[in-house]
Amino acid sequence: QLELVESGGGLVQAGGSRRLSCVASGRTFSTYPMGWFRQAPGKEREFVAAISQSGDNAYYADSVKGRFTISRDSAKNTVYLQMNSLNPAGRCVYFCPLPTFFPSWDTPQGYEWDSWGQGTQVTVAS
Q1: Which of 31, 48, 70, 107 has the fewest CB within 10 Å, making it most exposed?
Q2: pLDDT-based confidence at 30, cuts 50/70/90?
């Protein structure tokens, strides 16, 4: 049974950094691209970043390009999100989903991200 467990959230000052981790179990981790999404209270969940199965290709939302870095360690079944220069956006929950349908002709934003963990909350204080 697939399980995704995010961690690393907490309170951080605006301009600061935070690294999130997500451990996956129950699937062959290296055969799936992985992603990070986030959701603020009262807003829709939005795409943040994704990484290919090999880790050679990464994709970012325009809002985080140059500040966030996604990476993965297949030996540890873990995907990371390094977040730098955080904006004072308040409270946000970050999720690391796994897609079950990811055609090569589509971008990560179009994948079927339908396996989700509980998320980890990041609060950026101004």
Answers
A1: 31
A2: confident
